[in-house]
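WP5 quarterly update. Target: Rab-like protein 3. Source organism: Phaedon cochleariae. Length: 239 aa.
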Amino acid sequence: MTAIDRVRILVLGDSGVGKTSFVHLAAHNEPLRSPSWTVGCSVEVKLHEYKEGTKDQKTYFIEFWDIGGSHIHRNSRSVFYYPCHGAILVHDLTNRKSEKNLHKWVREISKRQRERKDSNSYMYVPYTSNLLSEDFDQESSFGSSSIPFLVIGTKLNQVEDRKSHTGHMASHLGCDEIVMDCLQTRYLAAGTSNAVKLSRFYDKAIEMRSKLHKDSFTERLNDPISPILSTKFYSPHQD
Ligand SMILES: Nc1nc2c(ncn2[C@@H]2O[C@H](COP(=O)(O)OP(=O)(O)OP(=O)(O)O)[C@@H](O)[C@H]2O)c(=O)[nH]1
Ligand SMILES: [Mg+2]
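Structure tokens (predicted):
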């Protein structure tokens, strides 16, 4: 039996916006009635069929790394940020500040990836100082090597004026956004446009994982002391 590859997705956003509620619904197809505050990080897993229905179909584990949003832990939580293959940014539609604050979360991951790149990493989210500006543009600022993002707006059932939501963050990042009520299964039901967006996001994260593995392999091949090419591994067979 072949092992199933894992894809790591960070779930980020301010405390109380609904990250744990969203993850539970996405992973178990049922709402979580009374979530506790997340301390540190909690991980949920689900199976996903990459490119379902095509010749490239393959099963992966999607790991949701649900990071507690409390301000108190902001200095320690970056240990969970690497490696990652995609990020879900969650905000509360009844709290505009939580959407604006998503910039801070992107900067946090970006900083961590840069630190790792400076040491030995092969993947990063480039830091950009204009992340808060109106002119922010994903393609020019993040480049094509950026991890994929997905924005989730929660508590749709509590919003009076649904048309007032502008979806700024998603358009700044050039990614999809899903607005939903995490306590109702129908928002992520199979066949809905939300389910299609989620599936597309998982596929992009899987592709990022493959790209990083390939880059990492190539980089090790070019490394003169790479264990991959070392004589220890490639010494002629002697009987
Ligand atoms: N009505 C409604 N309530 C929600 C929704 N999402 C979350 N909640 C509620 O909001 C509260 C906080 O939700 P959590 O999922 O714990 O929030 P969190 O982002 O994980 O918070 P931290 O773990 O502190 O970072 C809970 O009472 C949830 O039931 C939603 O879409 N609709
Ligand atoms: Mg939580």
